Amino acid sequence: MVNVASLGALLIVVFTPACQEDQTLLEPGGDPASGATAVDVDQPVRGDEAPPSAGEVGLWRCDLDGEFGVSVAAHGLESLDGARVWLSAVEPNVEPGDEDEVVVLLGGRVKDGAFKLACEHGLRTNYSYPSLAVVVDRDGDGRCSAADQAFRMQMYGWADAQEYGLTAAAVETPWPMEDAWQAASEVPPLWGDLDLCRYHFAAL
Fold first, then answer.
1. Can you list the alpha helix ranges (DSSP code H) found in the chain?
2. 123 φ/ψ sector (left φ>0, alpha ψ -120 to 50, else beta)
3. Which of 7, 16, 148, 167 is the most exposed place for a label (fewest CB within 10 A)?
């Protein structure tokens, strides 16, 4: 079971170029250059809803007090222009009975064949097989489902920034890997029976 905790801080970084100051809502004292909480108010990111106002409890999660960040950027996705895209990172808990926690949950849209989703300080050192996943809403139903295009990476652990560059078919960075994407239904389940959508994107 995955728990998406209530949010006190959130960050959505979607596409390039970066938001102008008059297009961005900030929490008090926020500074986009320092990685402070910022929400792009111009780009709807879930269905037809606008992103939540800064400080509002909502779907998206990106803590500002973690040890390091996560970033996924992609290009060459022109055939998916306009599609929603989501990034999730899960850090399993080591204590028996504790729920694994979705520590990062971000959303945006593919624009001009590209997207970038990033959370600068959302991750913490974890050696309990953490994982991250990206889903592109290929069927347009507004949620993670079997026909969507998915990329998932599970590791023994992470202790530094997780930064990935993707194309329409492959991983470019941090290491080349072919056949990066697959249908969400084809991604092997985790922990026996937890499929990708249930484990990473149950909140959608």
1. 196-200
2. beta
3. 16
